[in-house]
Amino acid sequence: MSGMNLSIGTPYSRWLRGGLCLAGVLSAVVAAAEVKGGSYHLEKQVTIKSSDTGWDYISLDQVRGRIFIAHRKDGLHVYDTGQGRIIKTLAQSAGANTSALATEFDVGLVGTTDGHVVVFQISSLKTLSRYKSDTDGFDGATFDKVSQRFAMVGETDNVNKMTPVLFFDGATGNPAGSVMIDSTKVDAPRPDGIGNIVMPLRDKAQVVKVDARTIKVVATFPLDDCLQPAALEMDQAGHRIFVGCRGKEASLPVLVVLDATSGKQLATLPIGRGVDEVMYDAKARLIITANGEDANMTVIQQASPDEYRVAETVGTQPMARTGVMDAETGKVYLVNAQYVIRYDDGRAPTTRFLPNTFSVLTYTK
Fold this sequence. Notes:
By secondary structure, the chain is mainly β.
């Protein structure tokens, strides 16, 4: 059975929110095979030439069937989903840590680990410019259609315990302003569809909302029993925020559902360890978390904006923690690489990725 993984030992009584009862949660295990369209499985694995570098976020050009993979010192790879291969690595993109696409302007933006911004044309994959920004490194990024601006999380100011979020014009990629967030770990932003971006604050156990037009914080939502929120996604039509929380010590990993207007917590569901991506299929009404530490995906069925159940746990591969969903096909694309963790005397553990093992994993139903 490909149902919910019970081995992580989560006390079910702590998950009961939003009208769910214990019997309902347990029935989700039995009903796991009833995920609409069947269960997710690995369709294809493509391993590419690579160095020992790490990676981070992925963005999708749905029209052309291309995913953009931020592979740090190896640059921004462009993977053609139809051909199943890398068709280009963007020029001048070394250090790529995140990207976002403004398809209406045919403009893409890359943020690097040393704070450079790379502007490129989506259709031709031509690099238009690379310039140094006002921060020394970038984390997650998104594009907001209402304000027509990109937003990218900058490098934390550890002295003042604040993190900048920088905004850029969607048509040109030029700077448009910034706002400081009261957090030392701000993770990837997502647009809410009405002119705001929302971001998880991992160190604060909060979600912050910023108006992308005024570039000001307009709301902060505390999270109940959700430690280390590391990723989120939006159901824009239903006005819901899905927050993936890694947990810490006695607090276990969960997905929390929030009302996007009030911040009210509506549901809490178990997920795997090491979540770094939350994806939403609006057509199938599925929320998927990529859990790199447990090497699995948790698939959650949305019955209504207020009703959810865990449908299945799908085994993936170790370190497959970031990805993207193609909403048209329902396919999920994750990336990973083989790794070695060294434990030298008197030193913190270090992770090394093995060259030429970086892979694109395609999951389908």
